[in-house]
Amino acid sequence: MRCEVLVLGAGSAGLAAAVHAAKAAPGAEVLLVERHGYAGGMGTASLVHTFCGLYLPGDGPAVIANPGFATVVAERMIRATGAGPVKMGKVWVLPQHPAEFVRIADELLKESGVKLLYHTEALRAERDGEGWKLELAGRGGIFTVHARAVVDASGDAVFAAISGVAMATTVTDAGSLQRPAYIFGLRGVAEDAEMGLKLAGRLVDGMRRGVLPNGALGLHFRASARAGEFFGTIDLSGAEEGSAYDPLDPRCVSLLESTGREIACAALDFLKAEAEGWAEAYIAQWPVRAGVRESRRWIGRQVITGEEILAGVRHADEIALATWPLEFRETNRGPKLRYPEGDQPAGIPAGCLVPAAAELERVWVAGRCISCDHAAQASIRVMGTCFATGQAAGERAGESVSAE
What is the pLDDT of residues 167-190, one digit of tens each? Predict the structure, then answer.
């Protein structure tokens, strides 16, 4: 199998990269490889139900920070849900529905002519002339794909790991990694059911009495754009049973999944018994996977830092704007936010999308694994920014093959 551009990962960054690679190289074969059965990543498989980082910061109206792919997705989502931007504290967010995001992603991929390989993982990669040869695996076995250019939008810098190039990635110390989220769907909650501070107080009381596990600390619920539907969100510690948090270890992430479900079920049983309006509630949807916020990152030609984002530093070669505050979730006790000076967006330089290693030619990076430090990753990982870095990486990959 051959293609001009291979995009690894169909999350928000990979989706944008694939669509814009196809636009930049009309007629070229663009192949999108994804381990699940649909695109959208955190916004679909992990049920993250708001697009953060779409809009410019500040007190003005909601203005798209990075026009292009983000604009298209936002407009289609607003039509699908009927819900526009919402101000949450100092920032704008766009409520989104994971099921609608799946449909929108399908439409965009079909319109752009991108070829899809769902339920597929990349195992190995090596140079192949001026391009790359990848070994991919599906249930039917292992097969080979030859690509002239690659975009790694895997979220975990998978291509760096399988290419065998030393010093291509970095990992934050396990104790400081952003902790994962576990989100589940609910129905059957009464319109006048307990919510907000009253419900939070009831959950705390349940933990004090030993009726609820301590992992329920910070559990909160938010109504979706659909009648009678809510999403519950748990921030997991990631270090259950005394183990160190490692989002790349299948034993650790397996424990995350089972722990998230255990806490959700215990919390719902408690609320059904003790909270007003919760007696008929039930869990209607589990995520495909827990929402991992941070793992490996690429080492690029440039590294954007948290200090640059806080200072609103701009770059002559910037490819996108980072507009989200530094959102630290290094524990399961809620976020700690640090806002840029004067609500100024920071520029993401082009070198953050290009691996530093010379042997990694014709490779671009997008999404939460771009070249940045731990603090900057707390901002650039959100889906709105990932749309923008994905668009930029896809355009460059497409241009590289169309120019020949």
Answer: 889 999 988 999 999 999 999 999
- Rounded distance between C-alpha atoms, residue 213 and residue 83, angstroms: 35
Mean pLDDT of 394-404: 91
The predicted-structure confidence for 90-125, as pLDDT tens digits, reads as follows 999 999 999 999 999 999 999 999 999 999 999 999
Q: Which helix (H) or strand (E) holds 231?
A: strand 229-235
Average pLDDT over residues 80-86: 96
Other beta carbons less than 10 A from residue 128's beta carbon: 14
3-class DSSP state of 306: helix
CATH 3.30.70.20 describes domain 2-174+294-402: no
Which residues, in sequence order, are CB contacts of 75 under 8 Å at separation 6+?
Answer: none
Fold adopted by 181-285: Alpha-Beta Plaits (3.30.70)
Name the maximum alpha-carbon separation found in the chain.
68
The separation between the first and the last C-alpha atoms of the chain, rounded to the nearest angstrom, is 20
How does DSSP classify residue 251?
A: H
